[in-house]
Amino acid sequence: MKEKLEDTISEKSIERMVRTFYPMVLEDDLAGPFFVEKLGSDITSDVWEEHLVLISHFWAFVALGDEKYTGRPMAPHFGMRGISRKAFEQWLKLFAEAVDRVYLAERGAYFKTKSADIAENFMRNLGL
């Protein structure tokens, strides 16, 4: 049974989006290896759980102003071997697909716009 699409952005819907997205990333030949190298291939591990919670907090900060996120999102991307504009573009494609699986189009548009802005900023700062 297909889950109902979300009409509101909430901590719960953001977590659902994040947990929809990362299994897709792990299956992807271009984006997946970056995450496997840093976090491993077992998305049920404690390391992955910590990442999923962190990223859920990040998006709740971006979308809702939630203050649970206190990280530095750019920092982990410096020094990644092989990171490329093409990998970021694939990440964005997968992210948009996950957003479409969770949110109605009007709500999902927010995440697509923000993720594109964030990715562009990351690529600029990484010199890609």
Report on the architecture of this protein.
The chain is mainly α and 128 residues long. It has a single domain, classed as Orthogonal Bundle (Globin-like). Helices cover 66% and strands 0% of the residues. It contains five helices and no strands. α1 crosses α2, α1 crosses α3 and α4 runs antiparallel to α5. The protein is globular and about 40 Å long. The mean pLDDT is 91.
Top keywords for this entry?
5 helices, globular, 0% strand, mainly alpha, Globin-like, 128 residues
Question: Can you give me a brief rundown of this structure?
Answer:
With 128 residues, the chain is mainly alpha-helical.
How would the blueprint of this fold be written?
Elements: H1 11-27, H2 32-39, H3 46-64, H4 85-102, H5 105-126
Helix pairs in contact: 1-2, 1-3, 1-4, 4-5
Q: N-to-C SSE series?
A: HHHHH
When the domains are counted, the total is 1
Overall form: globular
Helix content: 55-70%
Low-confidence runs: none
And the CATH topology?
Globin-like
CATH superfamily: Globins
Strand content: under 5%
What gap, in angstroms, lies between the N and C termini?
A: 41 Å
The helix tally amounts to 5
Query: What's the CATH architecture?
Result: Orthogonal Bundle
- Give a quick account of the main beta sheet: strands, pairing sense, barrel closure: none
